[in-house]
Amino acid sequence: MQTKTHALPSPTPGTSRELVSLHYGTPGRGPKIYIQASLHADELPGMLTAWHLRKKLDALEAQGAIRGEIILVPMANPIGLSQWWLQSHLGRFESLSGENFNRHYPDYIGAAALDAEPRLSATDAPHNVQVLRTALKAAVQAAPAETELQTLRKTLMLLACDADVVLDLHCDAQAVMHLYTESPCWPQCEPLARYLGARVTLLATDSGDSPFDEACSQVWWKWARHFGERFPIPQACLSVTVELRGQADVEHGLASADAQAILDYLCFRGAVDGPLPPQPEPQGDARPLAGCMPIKAPVGGLLTFVRQVGENVAAGEVLAHVIDPISGQLTELKSPVDGLFFARDNLRMVTAGARVAKVAGREVLRSGKLLGAR
């Protein structure tokens, strides 16, 4: 294993941060896998899963069992890791700009397409994949990065943009295991959902605001659309946001099992040698992200849930109560659709208009930007 350190520019005199990546295997000898943890720095289950992955990858490398290249970033956000206020960790948004660490990744699709087009083949799809990956990496490398946050985004993209598989390990507040990926990626993602035991995979084609996973995967279906029938362009990157349950689920048993499930999938993809584990029976299914309905509190007050995450609920069923402790008024929060109650907030005093839960339905009901938290 090779450890690489990527310095970030100092935002102010006397301060500096760095990103660390761990590199296993040999580039070019098999598929490239990229895995990062805790881009939202206060989402810690991924960090513990990465620790278990590191131990398992160390053992596999010692056995000569890594066929491709695997890059593991065990802590993807040193900026957010350092942001604290009165013992509270603020790892989702950069305090300087207010931007979400998992949004606003730049679009290099047009620049890479223009550079690659003269070298593309009308018949050789694997050749086109290599040409486009080289052009994409060159476009990312040439892009300016003036701030610490921009440099972090650029560094992560340079590590990931030419990978066959990108796994971005996150978690929700309180939730069951679930995944986000783009619709063209679902055929490649379905075995991963089985190995991880995901209760639901939420699918969209460009959900809005360019999160990290989509910045890695959408280049391929957009290039295919751009070039049309002139050049064969496959969906050469599976990129998935893996939501490892809730923020408090930082336990060795869960993390070790999740790490093994990821390695089972990498074995399935040919990145790791060993007996191929049979795919488990699916624990859930794929549903449109546009059918994932946020539950909002119309008033502020004390929040108490009457249903648990992981339960299937019907439209009109009460999920939670908001209680005004002064007037005594109780407001019911109901599910707007039939679906899986898969995530809820961990705060129990909420403000009017706050999103406090999510139910995954099966029908497309929303449009526009589909992700919350700008």
Low-confidence stretches: none
Tell me the domain tally. Answer: 2
Helix content: 25-40%
Per DSSP, the total helix count is: 8
Distance between the termini: 36 Å
What is the fold named in CATH at topology level of the largest domain? Aminopeptidase
| Level-2 CATH architecture of the largest domain | 3-Layer(aba) Sandwich
Rg over alpha carbons: 21 Å
In which order are the strands of the major sheet placed?
Answer: 1-2-4-3-7-11-9-10-12
Instruction: Please identify which CATH superfamily of the largest domain we are dealing with.
Output: Zn peptidases
N-to-C order of helices and strands: EEEHEHEEHHHEEEHEHEHEEEEEEEEE
* Strand portion: 25-35%
Written overview of the protein:
The protein is α+β, with helices and mostly antiparallel strands and 374 residues long. The chain has two domains: 282 residues, Zn peptidases (Aminopeptidase); 72 residues, OB fold (Dihydrolipoamide Acetyltransferase, E2P). Helices cover 28% and strands 27% of the residues. It has eight helices and 20 strands. Strand 1 and strand 2 form a beta hairpin. The longest helix is centred in the N-terminal third of the chain and has 18 residues. The two termini are 36 Å apart.
